[in-house]
Amino acid sequence: MKKHPIEELIEQGEHQQLDFKYEVSDSKKIARTLSAFANTDGGRLLIGVKDNGNISGIRSEEEYYMIEAASKMYTRPEVPFRATRWEINGKTVLEVYIAPSIDKPHTAPDKDDCYKAYIRVADENILANDILMRAWQKAHKSEGILLKIGKPVEHLFVYLEEHTYITVGQFCRIGHINYFTAKNILSDLLALRILQYTFIDKQIVYQKTPSATT
């Protein structure tokens, strides 16, 4: 007997583009997941699925309305979503799809109700840092970005020829620049897609994009 497409998804386990929720009881909390998916690579929420992959099913229409409230009331700008109900072995799973956004950063309230932007790393929602926020904002600018190829940028490219990634602190040291200048250059390079970010050792770090030529 062929497996249901949702069962095949569940077998993948939670990852950067897939999250399981037994239930939705807090629209603000789920808004962080919407923010993280939209700000990263998009993804799917499967409501009515336990962390271990067992299908429990949703209990009522309330789950959909909690997602809708998360989207409309607690994400800025609003994160759109598409919801589909699936019947699997007599139980209902709500699949919520969030596309990767071109309007990032999307923010959602943290535990103190301060609106912050999140990114999705593996199966976790992580706070975006100031460099990512600047890069996203610069990418929207219609006048473009003027990048000065000075000594710090040259040192950066040489470093990345020999190392997989660089931290802000390392860039400050090899470029002989202050933290503010390092953040500004890195955000320019991210906005231009010369660099990309990744998450290593519990911190956001930067590496050359595979297509970048220097």
Provide a brief overview of the structure.
The chain has 214 residues and is an alpha+beta fold. Helices cover 36% and strands 23% of the residues. The protein folds into two domains: 123 residues, Schlafen, AAA domain (Methyltransferase, Cobalt-precorrin-4 Transmethylase, Domain 2, 2-Layer Sandwich), CATH 3.30.950; 79 residues, Orthogonal Bundle (Arc Repressor Mutant, subunit A).
What is the straight-line distance between the termini?
Answer: 53 Å
Following the backbone from N to C, one meets helices and strands in this order, namely: HEHEHEEEEEHHHHEE
CATH superfamily of the largest domain: Schlafen, AAA domain
Strand order of the largest sheet: 1-2-4-3
Share in β-strands: 15-25%
Give the averaged pLDDT, no decimals: 93
Number of strands: 9
Which CATH class of the largest domain is shown? Alpha Beta
CATH topology (level 3) name of the largest domain: Methyltransferase, Cobalt-precorrin-4 Transmethylase, Domain 2
Q: Which spans have pLDDT < 50 for at least 5 consecutive residues? A: none
Main β sheet profile: 4 strands, mixed
Question: Overall 3D geometry?
Answer: elongated
Structural class: alpha+beta
Helix content estimate: 25-40%
Name given to the CATH architecture of the largest domain: 2-Layer Sandwich
Number of domains: 2
Question: Can you count the helices?
Answer: 7
Radius of gyration: 20 Å
